Design the sequence.
Protein backbone atom coordinates (compact mmCIF):
# COMPACT_ATOMS: atom_id res chain seq x y z
CA UNK A 1 0.00 0.00 0.00
CA UNK A 2 1.05 3.62 -0.49
CA UNK A 3 2.85 5.09 2.49
CA UNK A 4 1.04 8.32 3.31
CA UNK A 5 3.91 10.00 5.14
CA UNK A 6 4.18 13.78 5.43
CA UNK A 7 2.01 14.89 2.57
CA UNK A 8 3.06 18.38 1.45
CA UNK A 9 1.00 18.78 -1.72
CA UNK A 10 -1.62 21.40 -0.92
CA UNK A 11 -4.48 19.88 -2.89
CA UNK A 12 -3.90 16.32 -1.67
CA UNK A 13 -3.40 17.59 1.87
CA UNK A 14 -6.73 19.41 1.88
CA UNK A 15 -8.48 16.38 0.40
CA UNK A 16 -7.15 14.10 3.14
CA UNK A 17 -8.00 16.56 5.91
CA UNK A 18 -11.57 16.86 4.64
CA UNK A 19 -11.95 13.13 3.97
CA UNK A 20 -14.91 12.42 6.22
CA UNK A 21 -14.61 11.87 9.97
CA UNK A 22 -11.45 10.32 11.40
CA UNK A 23 -11.60 7.98 14.37
CA UNK A 24 -8.52 9.64 15.86
CA UNK A 25 -6.57 12.78 15.01
CA UNK A 26 -3.08 12.79 16.47
CA UNK A 27 -1.38 16.16 16.90
CA UNK A 28 2.38 15.63 16.86
CA UNK A 29 4.41 12.87 15.18
CA UNK A 30 7.21 12.32 17.71
CA UNK A 31 7.59 8.99 19.55
CA UNK A 32 4.28 9.42 21.39
CA UNK A 33 2.28 10.44 18.33
CA UNK A 34 3.91 7.93 15.98
CA UNK A 35 3.42 5.04 18.41
CA UNK A 36 -0.21 6.00 18.96
CA UNK A 37 -0.61 5.97 15.17
CA UNK A 38 0.86 2.45 15.01
CA UNK A 39 -1.56 1.11 17.60
CA UNK A 40 -4.60 3.02 16.36
CA UNK A 41 -4.19 2.20 12.65
CA UNK A 42 -3.28 -1.42 13.40
CA UNK A 43 -6.57 -1.59 15.30
CA UNK A 44 -8.36 -0.45 12.12
CA UNK A 45 -9.07 3.06 13.37
CA UNK A 46 -9.12 5.72 10.66
CA UNK A 47 -6.04 7.67 11.71
CA UNK A 48 -4.50 11.01 10.75
CA UNK A 49 -1.34 12.52 12.22
CA UNK A 50 -0.83 16.28 12.04
CA UNK A 51 2.56 17.93 12.57
CA UNK A 52 3.66 21.42 11.56
CA UNK A 53 7.40 20.63 11.75
CA UNK A 54 8.11 16.87 11.85
CA UNK A 55 11.87 17.34 11.71
CA UNK A 56 12.26 19.62 14.73
CA UNK A 57 11.02 17.64 17.73
CA UNK A 58 13.23 16.62 20.64
CA UNK A 59 13.86 13.13 19.24
CA UNK A 60 14.21 14.29 15.64
CA UNK A 61 17.17 16.54 16.48
CA UNK A 62 18.87 14.03 18.79
CA UNK A 63 22.21 13.15 17.20
CA UNK A 64 22.60 9.62 18.58
CA UNK A 65 20.46 7.19 20.59
CA UNK A 66 21.93 4.08 22.17
CA UNK A 67 19.32 3.02 24.73
CA UNK A 68 16.10 2.49 22.78
CA UNK A 69 14.86 -1.09 23.37
CA UNK A 70 15.59 -3.42 20.47
CA UNK A 71 17.87 -0.91 18.75
CA UNK A 72 21.30 -2.50 19.28
CA UNK A 73 23.38 -0.07 17.25
CA UNK A 74 23.46 3.68 17.80
CA UNK A 75 20.82 5.40 15.70
CA UNK A 76 20.04 9.03 14.87
CA UNK A 77 16.78 10.27 16.33
CA UNK A 78 15.38 11.13 12.90
CA UNK A 79 16.11 7.60 11.65
CA UNK A 80 14.32 6.05 14.61
CA UNK A 81 11.33 8.32 14.03
CA UNK A 82 11.24 7.41 10.36
CA UNK A 83 10.98 3.74 11.33
CA UNK A 84 8.08 4.43 13.69
CA UNK A 85 6.27 6.62 11.16
CA UNK A 86 6.74 4.11 8.33
CA UNK A 87 5.38 1.36 10.53
CA UNK A 88 2.25 3.41 11.22
CA UNK A 89 1.89 4.31 7.54
CA UNK A 90 2.08 0.62 6.62
CA UNK A 91 -0.96 0.07 8.84
CA UNK A 92 -2.82 2.87 7.05
CA UNK A 93 -2.16 6.05 9.06
CA UNK A 94 -1.99 9.31 7.12
CA UNK A 95 0.71 11.88 8.04
CA UNK A 96 0.13 15.50 7.08
CA UNK A 97 2.33 18.57 7.55
CA UNK A 98 0.00 21.30 8.73
CA UNK A 99 -0.31 23.81 11.55
CA UNK A 100 -3.07 23.10 14.09
CA UNK A 101 -4.53 26.46 15.15
CA UNK A 102 -7.24 25.28 17.51
CA UNK A 103 -9.59 22.51 18.57
CA UNK A 104 -13.21 22.30 19.66
CA UNK A 105 -15.08 19.52 21.45
CA UNK A 106 -18.79 18.80 21.28
CA UNK A 107 -19.82 15.58 22.98
CA UNK A 108 -18.85 12.76 20.57
CA UNK A 109 -17.36 14.99 17.86
CA UNK A 110 -14.14 17.00 17.77
CA UNK A 111 -13.16 19.75 15.36
CA UNK A 112 -9.53 20.57 14.55
CA UNK A 113 -8.78 23.86 12.81
CA UNK A 114 -5.65 23.78 10.63
CA UNK A 115 -4.04 26.05 8.07
CA UNK A 116 -5.18 23.58 5.39
CA UNK A 117 -8.78 23.22 6.41
CA UNK A 118 -11.11 21.97 9.11
CA UNK A 119 -10.83 18.37 10.26
CA UNK A 120 -13.49 16.28 11.97
CA UNK A 121 -12.55 13.46 14.34
CA UNK A 122 -14.17 11.36 17.01
CA UNK A 123 -11.15 11.64 19.31
CA UNK A 124 -7.88 13.57 19.63
CA UNK A 125 -4.48 12.62 21.00
CA UNK A 126 -2.27 15.63 21.80
CA UNK A 127 1.42 14.74 21.57
CA UNK A 128 3.10 18.04 20.68
CA UNK A 129 6.01 17.64 23.10
CA UNK A 130 7.33 20.42 25.30
CA UNK A 131 10.15 22.05 23.38
CA UNK A 132 9.95 25.76 22.75
CA UNK A 133 8.20 28.54 24.57
CA UNK A 134 11.36 30.30 25.81
CA UNK A 135 11.74 33.51 23.82
CA UNK A 136 15.25 34.60 24.81
CA UNK A 137 17.42 31.96 23.15
CA UNK A 138 21.20 32.04 23.51
CA UNK A 139 23.02 32.97 20.30
CA UNK A 140 24.06 29.69 18.69
CA UNK A 141 21.58 27.60 20.68
CA UNK A 142 19.41 26.67 17.70
CA UNK A 143 22.40 26.39 15.37
CA UNK A 144 24.11 23.71 17.48
CA UNK A 145 20.99 21.89 18.63
CA UNK A 146 21.82 18.19 18.32
CA UNK A 147 25.47 19.04 17.69
CA UNK A 148 26.51 19.79 21.25
CA UNK A 149 23.44 21.59 22.57
CA UNK A 150 20.98 19.40 24.46
CA UNK A 151 18.01 19.74 26.77
CA UNK A 152 18.27 16.21 28.19
CA UNK A 153 21.26 14.83 30.10
CA UNK A 154 19.45 11.55 30.68
CA UNK A 155 19.35 11.16 26.89
CA UNK A 156 22.81 12.42 25.92
CA UNK A 157 25.15 12.24 28.94
CA UNK A 158 26.90 9.05 27.81
CA UNK A 159 28.16 10.82 24.67
CA UNK A 160 30.26 13.15 26.85
CA UNK A 161 32.38 10.59 28.66
CA UNK A 162 35.64 12.22 29.80
CA UNK A 163 34.64 15.51 28.15
CA UNK A 164 33.90 19.03 29.38
CA UNK A 165 30.32 20.29 29.51
CA UNK A 166 28.40 23.33 30.66
CA UNK A 167 25.04 23.14 32.38
CA UNK A 168 23.08 26.38 32.15
CA UNK A 169 20.07 26.58 34.41
CA UNK A 170 18.16 28.20 37.21
CA UNK A 171 15.86 25.40 38.34
CA UNK A 172 15.73 22.05 40.10
CA UNK A 173 15.92 20.12 36.83
CA UNK A 174 19.31 21.69 36.08
CA UNK A 175 20.80 20.41 39.35
CA UNK A 176 19.31 16.94 38.84
CA UNK A 177 20.84 16.77 35.38
CA UNK A 178 24.22 17.83 36.77
CA UNK A 179 24.13 14.65 38.84
CA UNK A 180 23.40 12.57 35.74
CA UNK A 181 26.21 14.19 33.77
CA UNK A 182 28.66 13.80 36.65
CA UNK A 183 28.85 10.05 35.93
CA UNK A 184 30.36 10.75 32.53
CA UNK A 185 31.86 14.23 32.11
CA UNK A 186 35.34 14.94 33.44
CA UNK A 187 34.75 18.68 33.97
CA UNK A 188 31.51 20.57 34.49
CA UNK A 189 30.69 24.26 34.48
CA UNK A 190 27.41 24.89 36.30
CA UNK A 191 26.25 28.34 35.27
CA UNK A 192 23.32 29.82 37.17
CA UNK A 193 21.98 33.12 35.75
CA UNK A 194 20.66 34.43 39.07
CA UNK A 195 21.44 34.23 42.77
CA UNK A 196 19.36 31.14 43.53
CA UNK A 197 17.98 27.94 41.99
CA UNK A 198 14.22 27.43 42.19
CA UNK A 199 12.89 24.10 43.47
CA UNK A 200 13.48 21.64 46.28
CA UNK A 201 17.18 21.13 45.57
CA UNK A 202 19.79 23.77 44.82
CA UNK A 203 23.46 24.26 43.99
CA UNK A 204 24.47 23.24 47.52
CA UNK A 205 23.74 19.65 46.46
CA UNK A 206 26.67 19.71 44.03
CA UNK A 207 29.87 18.16 45.48
CA UNK A 208 32.57 20.65 46.42
CA UNK A 209 35.56 19.52 44.36
CA UNK A 210 37.60 20.52 41.31
CA UNK A 211 35.35 18.64 38.89
CA UNK A 212 32.63 21.25 39.32
CA UNK A 213 32.92 24.96 38.62
CA UNK A 214 29.70 26.46 39.99
CA UNK A 215 29.05 30.12 39.20
CA UNK A 216 26.12 32.23 40.34
CA UNK A 217 24.98 35.38 38.51
CA UNK A 218 26.57 34.06 35.32
CA UNK A 219 24.88 34.35 31.96
CA UNK A 220 25.96 32.84 28.65
CA UNK A 221 26.01 35.24 25.74
CA UNK A 222 26.92 32.89 22.88
CA UNK A 223 27.59 29.26 21.97
CA UNK A 224 30.38 28.83 19.42
CA UNK A 225 31.87 26.07 17.28
CA UNK A 226 32.31 24.73 13.78
CA UNK A 227 30.81 21.28 13.18
CA UNK A 228 29.89 21.01 16.87
CA UNK A 229 30.10 23.04 20.07
CA UNK A 230 33.61 24.15 21.00
CA UNK A 231 33.15 26.99 23.49
CA UNK A 232 30.78 29.41 25.18
CA UNK A 233 31.12 33.17 25.65
CA UNK A 234 30.01 34.47 29.04
CA UNK A 235 28.37 37.87 29.45
CA UNK A 236 31.60 39.24 30.97
CA UNK A 237 33.45 38.34 27.77
CA UNK A 238 35.23 35.22 29.09
CA UNK A 239 35.44 32.32 26.62
CA UNK A 240 35.22 28.82 28.12
CA UNK A 241 36.09 25.69 26.12
CA UNK A 242 33.39 23.01 26.32
CA UNK A 243 32.29 20.00 24.27
CA UNK A 244 28.61 20.21 25.16
CA UNK A 245 26.00 22.58 26.55
CA UNK A 246 22.92 21.45 28.48
CA UNK A 247 20.23 24.12 28.90
CA UNK A 248 17.57 24.21 31.61
CA UNK A 249 16.37 27.80 31.79
CA UNK A 250 13.00 28.97 33.06
CA UNK A 251 10.57 29.81 30.30
CA UNK A 252 10.74 26.49 28.45
CA UNK A 253 6.98 26.03 28.53
CA UNK A 254 5.00 23.67 26.30
CA UNK A 255 3.21 25.14 23.31
CA UNK A 256 -0.39 24.57 24.36
CA UNK A 257 -1.77 28.01 23.48
CA UNK A 258 -3.73 26.54 20.56
CA UNK A 259 -5.88 24.61 23.05
CA UNK A 260 -7.43 27.84 24.35
CA UNK A 261 -8.01 26.35 27.79
CA UNK A 262 -10.18 23.48 26.54
CA UNK A 263 -8.34 20.90 28.64
CA UNK A 264 -6.96 21.30 32.14
CA UNK A 265 -3.30 22.22 32.42
CA UNK A 266 -0.82 22.75 35.23
CA UNK A 267 0.34 26.21 36.24
CA UNK A 268 3.31 25.88 33.91
CA UNK A 269 1.21 24.78 30.92
CA UNK A 270 1.49 20.98 30.90
CA UNK A 271 -1.66 18.96 30.24
CA UNK A 272 -3.16 17.05 33.17
CA UNK A 273 -3.93 13.40 32.40
CA UNK A 274 -4.71 10.24 34.35
CA UNK A 275 -2.99 6.86 34.03
CA UNK A 276 -4.91 6.17 30.80
CA UNK A 277 -3.73 9.46 29.22
CA UNK A 278 -7.25 10.85 29.50
CA UNK A 279 -7.73 14.59 29.94
CA UNK A 280 -10.73 16.11 31.68
CA UNK A 281 -12.56 16.16 28.32
CA UNK A 282 -13.92 12.76 27.15
CA UNK A 283 -12.32 11.76 23.87
CA UNK A 284 -9.30 14.02 24.22
CA UNK A 285 -6.06 12.34 25.30
CA UNK A 286 -2.53 13.62 25.81
CA UNK A 287 0.89 12.05 26.30
CA UNK A 288 4.62 12.36 25.92
CA UNK A 289 6.49 15.39 27.23
CA UNK A 290 3.33 17.52 27.04
CA UNK A 291 2.12 15.79 30.22
CA UNK A 292 5.42 16.42 32.06
CA UNK A 293 6.52 12.83 32.71
CA UNK A 294 8.96 12.13 35.58
CA UNK A 295 11.70 11.46 33.00
CA UNK A 296 11.87 12.61 29.38
CA UNK A 297 12.76 9.56 27.31
CA UNK A 298 11.65 8.39 23.87
CA UNK A 299 10.60 5.02 25.27
CA UNK A 300 8.41 6.70 27.91
CA UNK A 301 6.74 8.86 25.27
CA UNK A 302 6.20 5.79 23.09
CA UNK A 303 4.55 4.00 26.02
CA UNK A 304 2.24 6.97 26.50
CA UNK A 305 1.26 6.74 22.84
CA UNK A 306 0.44 3.05 23.12
CA UNK A 307 -1.69 3.62 26.24
CA UNK A 308 -3.47 6.57 24.64
CA UNK A 309 -4.33 4.62 21.49
CA UNK A 310 -5.77 1.71 23.47
CA UNK A 311 -7.67 4.13 25.71
CA UNK A 312 -9.01 5.81 22.60
CA UNK A 313 -10.19 2.45 21.26
CA UNK A 314 -12.03 1.89 24.55
CA UNK A 315 -13.64 5.33 24.22
CA UNK A 316 -14.66 4.90 20.57
CA UNK A 317 -16.28 1.52 21.12
CA UNK A 318 -17.67 2.35 24.58
CA UNK A 319 -15.86 -0.55 26.21
CA UNK A 320 -15.59 -0.94 29.95
CA UNK A 321 -11.87 -1.73 29.98
CA UNK A 322 -8.78 -1.10 27.86
CA UNK A 323 -8.01 -4.09 25.61
CA UNK A 324 -4.28 -4.66 24.95
CA UNK A 325 -3.16 -5.61 21.42
CA UNK A 326 -1.42 -8.95 20.99
CA UNK A 327 -0.06 -10.84 18.02
Sequence:
Amino acid sequence: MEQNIFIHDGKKKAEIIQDGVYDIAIIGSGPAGATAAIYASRGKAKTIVLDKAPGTGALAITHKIANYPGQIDEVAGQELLDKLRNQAANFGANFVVTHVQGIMSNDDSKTIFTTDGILQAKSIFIAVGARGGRKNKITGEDEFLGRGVSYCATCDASFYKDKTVAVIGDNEEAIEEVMVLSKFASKMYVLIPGKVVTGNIDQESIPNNDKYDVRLNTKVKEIKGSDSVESIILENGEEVSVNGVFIYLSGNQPNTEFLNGIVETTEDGYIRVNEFMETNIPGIFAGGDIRKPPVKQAVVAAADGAIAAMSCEKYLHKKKTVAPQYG
